[in-house]
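User: My advisor, Dr. K., asked me to get a structural model of this assembly before our group meeting. I'm new to this, so sorry if the format is off. These are the inputs:
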Amino acid sequence: MMPRISFPEDVWIGGDKLEGILWKAKEAIQGKESVCFEILPGSKILIDAAVIFLSLINQLSAEGKLVTIDFQNEDSEVMGYFNRMGFFDHIAPHVTILPAKPLFSGAQLYKKSNKGLVEIVRIDEDDAELPGRLADALETKDKKLGKASFTIFGELIDNVIRHSSTKLDAFAALQTYKNGIMVIVSDSGKGLLGTLRPKLPKKYKDATDIEIVIDAFEKGLTRHRKKSGHGCGLTTCARKAKQFHGKLHVRLADTRVNLVPADDVYTHDTAYCFLELLPVKGTHITFDFKY
Amino acid sequence: MENSGSIKSMNQTRGVVKLVDLTKSPDGWGNAQGKEVGKLLENFIQRHPEIDIFKVSFAGIQRTDASFSRESVVEIASRFRTRHAIAIVDLDDDDLIENLDVAADKKEQPLFSWQDDSWKLLGQSPTKGNTDLLHYILTVAETTASTAASALDLKLTNASTKLKQLWESGYIMRREEMAPSGGIEFIYYRIK
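Assistant: The format is fine. Below is the predicted structure of the whole assembly, which you can bring to the meeting.
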């Protein structure tokens, strides 16, 4: 029997909550050839959870699993929101959408009409204007944050283009909320630790994921030689985020590291980590800024 | 006064490169665009072997990231270190400064950003022992080892070693001139 995994109603589902849902269903998702995600009409899903969920669905489909997403009702608000974000534009073709996939893409229809919401965008190395487009949406709300976010998007998208090494699509998105802004870049590639760990100096041999993630953002780890100057991308992202007291969430293969700045530094003392999560390929980095 | 006359030798013609002319856009991001722009800057420098210091103007540039800053400017400054130098001008945006600073720091390639006569060092500071000497050169514009030794009360060999270290590390430039005694001496000068 196909396992059904339910997203609860009346509670906001962000990245952390999504991990809880997936962790409970870990065996069902890994062990079966087909899986159904049941998203109740009253579910409220934040942009980071929506994008990571999209990447996961595409990964499961690429592995040959039969994936169904059941929204239960065509008038489902969450389905309308997903459509507006372009979720269905980027979903793998063999995924079944119930009751039915929307006939028209809300993202295509209303493209760029809402400055606070940028549709989920596929990362394309030929799209030289992508970081600028994403940052422009923020500059209308907060000029300084918009400018800083250009650097964040530029570095993260560049990392995806250079390191992810996969045919699966990677995505970027942002959304402004009443009390803040969330931006996410998600790919289904080798993952930050997958590319970094084998090339790190011996002193990192026994380092935990959380230690490597913190050093990658605070010190700038690189797989290149020391004087190459590489490794400055993530440190610059972290610097910008800290200037705006942004929280940083990094979802890796089976861990999620949440970093909260304390005195302008991301440290172990204010970091927490979810371990042994459902395996998800790639690197999924979220910056969470509160007004 | 005689010395200052010799400053304006042929190899000190200044070349100005507007970065926005190379990016063709007010925005620059990522390794790929950085490398493209860096190649254009490198070609420009190679076409002008007579110029020792190139001024790279950030006028018209609105947004960058650190990877672009590294590949377009810092990498090229590092590649030509001791032969040609890059001085940054028209850069007063905190975000752009920070991105260039992080890249210069990681690459261990110092850069000076100038606004009229005031300067900002991007990247790593020199060693403590060389800092006074660097500040002295930034103030007087150029010096010889013997002049610096007298001004800062250093032994001549010590001043000479420190100047060479600053030159090799990319903080200053130097040229050879005929000394009054008839021998060759090095004139060390600021990157402006």
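One thing worth pointing out at the meeting: The mean pLDDT of chain A is 90.

User: Perfect, thanks a lot.
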